[in-house]
Amino acid sequence: MINNTTYRLYGRTKGRKKNKDNYSFLKIKLINIDHTKYNILDIGSGFGESTIKIAKKDKNKIVISCEKYIDGLNSLFKKAQREQLDNIYIYQGNVHQMIDEYCSKNSLSEVWILYPDPWPKKKHFKRRLIDKYFFDKIKTYLKYGATINIASDSKSYISHILRTIYEVKADFLWVNQSKSEWEYDSEILPETKYYKKALENGLKPFYVKLKKL
Ligand SMILES: C[S@@+](CC[C@H](N)C(=O)[O-])C[C@H]1O[C@@H](n2cnc3c(N)ncnc32)[C@H](O)[C@@H]1O
Question: 58, 71, 117, 153: which one is catalytic?
């Protein structure tokens, strides 16, 4: 059952500065995700560096950017216009709501979750996006062989993610199990704001690639 708390989100929706930009992109809504296409979902896309990089790589693939932070989406919208990318769709809000309202079963080919909010305090762990509930939900929307790409610089969140991967091992294969493969390599993976922050803070991001069985 869907109620007002189902799609509750924590953290910022808008920046502190008054922004004079108009948010015309908000009118861009997903009509329906065409399951015959190669659809990539970028969850919590922040300022959009990842969405842009992925969309530029192959313009025949659709990238759906899902983010609640309006200033970040505004920045993504401007970059997409500048680069003349028309394979990007934007959804402002909670990814759970987007999936429930717009995704059809077996429609997603790739999912990216880069540096999800770590919620480091124990009392806030339940706010974390990635858990067994998330995997159980998203698996029905993934095509066979679809990948989920996750990166984090939070030791506690990484442990939590690894425990969860173990819980869902009947449905997902952990592809990159060797040390050299799980290091976040900036040559191929997007250099997002939070990736750069991690490096500034001397942290080593961890990258996980899963494949739906
Ligand atoms: C720490 S930031 C990382 C942003 C970006 N991926 C990066 O690497 O710079 C996490 C982002 O996820 C967004 N977010 C968190 N939970 C979300 C949800 N359930 N649905 C959509 N976006 C979400 C937040 O608004 C925030 O911008």
Answer: 117
